[in-house]
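[audit] Reproducing an earlier prediction to check determinism. Same input, same settings, fresh worker. If the tokens differ from the archived copy the diff job will pick it up downstream; this log only records the rerun itself.
[audit] input (255 residues):
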Amino acid sequence: MPAPDLVTAELTLTGRITTASNATFLGSIGDVVVVYKPIAGESPLWDFPHGTLAHREVAAYLVSQVFGWDVVPHTWLRDGPMGEGMVQLWQEQDPAQRAVNLVATDNVPETGWKHVLEGQDENGRMVALVHEDSPALRRMAVFDVVVNNADRKGDHILAMPGGHRHGVDHGLTFHCDHKLRTVLWGWLGDALTTEERDSLDRVSEELHGELGRNLADLLSTEEIASLAARCARLRLAGRFPAPSGEMSAVPWPLF
């Protein structure tokens, strides 16, 4: 059986993801399982223009593609049962893996993990936020700096079989103001690798080409200019940035 046309074939809803802050549905296009977020179901935010989150999710996918790291699963805009929205290929993660975790402070792994912060859990016990020290997660951290991700929670990182890591839920991205809130602070101050610098250069170059033309349908002129400026600043600094500004450096809740 030929694969369905993911843009024009019927999108059928099969369930609702109730933990999401915006209307989010599980669906299918033929035998392809997808996530569908209609623009009509987006909750108003004080700092992001209303009705733009789906466009930002697609823009994040396009930037991810130019990076070449497959951070964001295939994502596109199309019509659906509740009108136009973002559609993304469903990813079945490995339940035995966890890229980000909370552990007791006296049980922080000595190798293979990065220690981000410490605090108390709901029972008053001291816990530490940790994430794995892996190339796949490190690339996601670079990506988040560039797209200015304001909501990289632990559960927005999908641990895939074989070690790949997908990032999802990119509606709160590409703001002109600094908004970076993430659980992936473990490489703070580390120098960028040659691969990371080359990928930044590729994004910067493509902003003057096909990527820039495609983003023009999804983001404002000011947002694209801010994206280019973040690429340039990160490339010039040559290392992972530290938190800045008065707002929290991590999202809440963390997961």
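[audit] rerun output stored. Observation attached for the diff report: The chain has a mean pLDDT of 96.
[audit] end
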